[in-house]
């Protein structure tokens, strides 16, 4: 990819069309046919060039939403069809790796092109600063993604010519420092907020959140906590009252989201959540390609804050409920009891047995289990043997009908995530301090859950924070990075069976030791022999 993107200065900018709607900042102006000599002359050129950065980000999100934003590679959701990253049999030359690498370096090249050309354009100072800030933000953001997935990578701070694109890998520390520098400069250049026509652009708060994430990933806990705390205290972001509204089209551009990917309901410019997260009763007849696991559902506490435990429930015969006995799931009263009086986020994120779902034609369907395919008002999932389904990111009713093109913005950073990252970092600095309790409790209180119990030590608090991140952020793609940076991915994934909630085995998961980092794509090593491969690949 690097070899290709260096042949012509704007080659990559000329192959895409930027999306828009009538009041969106992403004007659909094609860059096809523009030459290097005829571009970078006006403020409009600068804005169009910057919009290409957002398009690359959208391209990556589009590529991974089919994997539940990569939560499918963890213990909380899974692919309905076998894929190498779920079974532990993905070769280093898989296109998934090379495509992701290419998208990130494409974005970096575009950012570097902007940083080289925009300073010389005669244009308004505010838009110039914003454009340069967006370029620094996205360059740092794409390097963060490369660092997270691939580890050490080559650093490029210019729009490279072909003979300049054969650098060896920098160290991970150098990549981390580069990201921090970019996000610091982006924080200084970007505005705090935008008028309606520019909603969705990166703000200084997005840059600060990403700098905090870089510190957290590097285990620089004091620096991470300081960045997150500053954002919490000084930004205009706030937790919304209704958790479920965060993941509905009606909740787009809400006050909790710090940075997201913007979509519209138009062929080629929407998001395929309704297909991949959605179910057969929705207006778009989703495929349930990604499904929540029983482990995730069982992680939601009782409404009083005590852990959920099957040992506290009985089956139809009065015996302890056995989740691995399909017969125990056949009694309606017994099964209903399992999902009553639980953390409200469970039913807001997941369709469970004996809950309802409003599908196509505004019909309310009831998830009877065992599944009754003869009842026209019964919810019939794609997988009828005992499957949970996502409610998160799945629209109800029939307002939107483009299966692969929902106008649902996808949150990449939201305030609840920042608050929990602050709690995590602060807990490493001051174990189980009151500030840590306050942060976690703020997220729990919004959900309708009681405060954490007093008397936790640092280790216990760490586990509570990790559980809180799991249930709060499920389906948003955060856990794949979390379990890898915590070093627990192999423990919670490798050798574990994907199962129906009835205990029936579907497929065994795999997470070899070398899966903590993705392989450097073999195609890139072939082009640039200075690149070395990650261990185990």
Biggest sheet, strands in spatial order? 1-3
The level-1 CATH class of the domain at 44-234 and 519-527: Mainly Alpha
**What composes the largest sheet?**
2 strands, antiparallel
**Backbone structural class:** mainly alpha
Number of strands: 10
Q: Could you tell me the strand content as a percent range? A: 5-15%
Please count the helical segments.
18
How far apart the termini lie comes to: 20 Å
The topology string of helices and strands comes to HHEHHHHHHEHEHHHEEEEEHHHHHEEH
Q: Any low-confidence stretches, pLDDT <50, length ≥5?
A: 1-35
The CATH architecture category of the domain at 44-234 and 519-527 equals Alpha Horseshoe
Radius of gyration: 24 Å
Question: In which range does the helix fraction lie?
Answer: 25-40%
Explain this structure:
It is a single chain. The chain has about 525 residues and is mainly α. Among the domains are: about 45-235 and about 520-525, Alpha Horseshoe (Serine Threonine Protein Phosphatase 5, Tetratricopeptide repeat), CATH 1.25.40; about 270-410, no CATH class. It has 18 helices and 10 strands. The strands form 5 sheets. The chain has a two-stranded antiparallel ribbon with strand order 1-3. The radius of gyration is 24 Å and the shape is globular. The two termini are about 20 Å apart.
């Amino acid at each position: 990819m690097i070899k290709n993107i260096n042949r012509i200065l704007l080659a990559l900018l000329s192959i895409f069309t930027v999306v828009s709607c009538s009041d969106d900042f992403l004007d659909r102006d094609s860059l096809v046919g523009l030459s290097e000599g005829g571009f970078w002359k006006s403020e409009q050129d600068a804005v169009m060039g910057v919009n290409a950065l957002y398009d690359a980000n959208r391209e990556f999100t589009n590529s991974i939403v089919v994997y539940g934003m990569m939560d499918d590679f963890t213990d909380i959701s899974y692919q309905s069809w076998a894929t190498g990253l779920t079974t532990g049999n993905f070769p280093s030359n898989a296109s998934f790796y090379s495509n992701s690498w290419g998208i990130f370096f494409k974005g970096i090249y575009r950012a570097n092109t902007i940083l080289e050309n925009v300073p010389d354009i005669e244009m308004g100072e505010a838009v110039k600063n914003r454009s340069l800030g967006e370029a620094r933000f996205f360059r740092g953001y794409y390097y963060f993604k490369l660092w997270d997935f691939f580890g050490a990578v080559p650093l490029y701070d210019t729009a490279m010519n072909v003979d300049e694109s054969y650098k060896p890998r920098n160290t991970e520390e150098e990549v981390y420092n580069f990201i921090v520098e970019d996000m610091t400069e982006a924080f200084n250049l970007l505005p705090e907020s935008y008028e309606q026509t520019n909603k969705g652009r990166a703000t200084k708060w997005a840059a600060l959140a990403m700098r905090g994430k870089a510190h957290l990933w590097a285990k620089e806990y004091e620096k991470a906590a300081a960045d997150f705390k500053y954002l919490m205290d000084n930004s205009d972001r706030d937790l919304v009252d209704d958790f479920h509204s965060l993941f509905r089209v009606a909740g787009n551009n809400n006050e909790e989201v710090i940075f997201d990917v913007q979509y519209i309901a138009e062929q080629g410019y929407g998001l395929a959540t309704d297909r991949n997260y959605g179910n057969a009763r929705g207006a778009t007849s989703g495929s349930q390609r990604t499904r929540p696991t029983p482990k995730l559902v069982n992680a939601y506490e009782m409404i009083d804050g005590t852990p959920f435990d099957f040992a506290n429930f009985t089956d139809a015969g009065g015996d302890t409920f056995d989740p691995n006995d399909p017969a125990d799931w056949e009694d309606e009263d017994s099964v209903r009891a399992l999902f009553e009086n639980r953390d409200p986020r469970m039913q807001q994120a997941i369709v469970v047995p004996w809950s309802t779902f409003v599908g196509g034609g505004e019909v309310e369907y009831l998830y009877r289990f065992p599944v009754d395919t003869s009842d026209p008002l019964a919810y019939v999932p794609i997988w009828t043997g005992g499957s949970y389904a996502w409610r998160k990111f799945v629209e109800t009713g029939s307002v939107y009908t483009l299966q692969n093109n929902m106008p649902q913005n996808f949150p990449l950073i939201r305030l609840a995530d920042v608050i929990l990252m602050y709690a995590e970092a602060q807990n490493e600095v001051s174990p189980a301090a009151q500030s840590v309790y306050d942060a976690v409790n703020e997220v729990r209180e919004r959900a309708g859950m009681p405060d954490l119990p007093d008397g936790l030590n640092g280790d216990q608090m760490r586990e509570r924070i990790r559980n809180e991140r799991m249930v709060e952020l499920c389906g948003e793609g955060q856990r794949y990075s979390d379990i890898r940076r915590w070093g627990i991915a192999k423990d919670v994934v490798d050798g574990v069976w994907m199962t129906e909630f009835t205990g029936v085995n579907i497929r065994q998961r795999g997470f070899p030791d070398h899966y903590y980092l993705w392989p450097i794509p073999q195609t890139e090593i072939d082009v640039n022999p200075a690149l070395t491969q990650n261990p185990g690949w």
